[in-house]
Write a structure and sequence with these properties.
This protein has 218 residues and is of the alpha/beta class. It has two domains: 106 residues, Tetrapyrrole methylase, N-terminal domain (Cobalt-precorrin-4 Transmethylase, domain 1, 3-Layer(aba) Sandwich); 106 residues, Tetrapyrrole methylase, C-terminal domain (Methyltransferase, Cobalt-precorrin-4 Transmethylase, Domain 2), CATH 3.30.950. The protein has a five-stranded parallel sheet with strand order 3-2-4-1-5, with helices on both faces. Strand 2, helix 2 and strand 3 form a beta-alpha-beta unit. Helix 3 crosses helix 4. The longest helix has 13 residues. The relative contact order is 0.15.
Length: 218
């Protein structure tokens, strides 16, 4: 069995009992970042073999995992944080397992997208998650214009290194649209910055925004 195990996005207490049981029972843990996962395992005194599974080695690892699963081994897949398969290479091994008729089981838990959305104050009945915004300004502007034309709430990930330029672009492109920046969710410096794009720009123009960021637009 391949288990898709959700892990905390910040606060180490945000993990389910079932997730801990699975991590203790499996034969192998496939981690996007073994150092980060190692902190979690150490905290809960879990001693299991880990191997890296990321964009660079996903094809090779997928073949290895398929053989292990066919031999009756169990594997837990974890990402850097949150739910595997969301803007990370998790979908690749899931797809390969399905092709081979191997069982895949979700172990639900933390998700930055849903955590940000539910506290945003913006409509949640219909939303689209777009992953990371494009890096280039031209492509980013095209994406924002597309969002403006659609009716549902839009959710993005954004890098702290690019967020200031993105906020300026929001101010220029959709100044009256509602924007929420959710950063450092579940951590000590958790923060929600809300307002129109123009208001959020004024609130952040003289600040440095650090940490993991979810951007929500409506």
């Amino acid at each position: 069995m391949l288990y898709i195990v959700s892990t905390p996005i910040g606060n180490l207490g945000d993990i389910t009992f079932r997730a801990l049981e699975i991590l203790k029972e499996v034969d192998l843990i496939a981690a996007e970042d073994t150092r980060r996962t190692g902190i979690l395992l150490k905290h809960y005194e879990i001693h299991k073999k880990m191997v890296s599974y990321n964009d660079h080695n996903k094809d090779r690892r997928a073949r290895e995992f398929i053989e292990l699963l066919k031999d009756g081994k169990s594997i837990a897949l974890v990402s850097d944080a949150g739910t595997p398969g969301i803007s990370d290479p998790g979908f690749h091994i899931v797809r390969e397992c399905i092709k081979e008729n191997l069982a895949v089981a979700p172990i639900p838990g933390a998700s930055a997208v849903l955590s940000a959305l539910t506290c945003s104050g913006l409509p949640t009945d219909r939303f689209t998650f777009y992953g990371f915004l494009p890096k280039k300004d031209g492509q980013k502007k095209k994406m924002l214009n597309l969002v403006k034309e659609r009716k549902e709430t839009a959710v993005f990930y954004e890098s702290p290194h690019r967020i200031k330029k993105t906020i300026l672009l929001l101010k220029e492109t959709i100044p009256e649209d509602n924007v929420v920046i959710a950063r450092e969710l579940t951590k000590k410096f958790e923060e929600f910055i809300r307002g129109t794009a123009s208001e959020v720009y004024e609130k952040t123009k003289d600040r440095e925004l650090k940490g993991e960021i979810v951007l929500i637009i409506k």
